Amino acid sequence: MFFLLKFYISIHIQDFEHAYELYKSWVSSGAEGAMLRAPGSPYEKKRSKYLLKWKPIHDEEAEVIGFQQGRNRLSGKLGTFIVKMGNKTFSLSGRLSDVFREQYVFKSGNVLVEGPDVDDPVYPSIGDIVTFTFMEYTTGGLPRQPIFQRIRYKKNQLHRA
Fold it and tell me: pTM for this one?
């Protein structure tokens, strides 16, 4: 059994269906999500292992049109993918491991000098369609906090639209 928290008010939840109905109504009325807390757990004025954040996550697809070199610790490695979704262009990164980033080698001037094979099923190339997740759209229509997930289609792969 859990409590759902709304505006610092605890609501005792009977089952998942009850929690989901409350969650849906809050999100549809503009809430960012909900917090779940086990009954009897202590309140902490910080990030807490006793709270679980429940937020909607969306996914979408975009075409890779370029690469951006990383900065500081990531200098010489991949920083972000530059992607295009419809008529919107933006940077896509998030949770890429150092091993993943090291597959893309840059020299000064943000020039990619070495990258993975264009047929590699894990590492995107220009023209590939990738899937990413995000929280919501910004007022400008861009995905907020986009995180790369995987390649959806390689550019030379036949697929249905």
Answer: 0.75
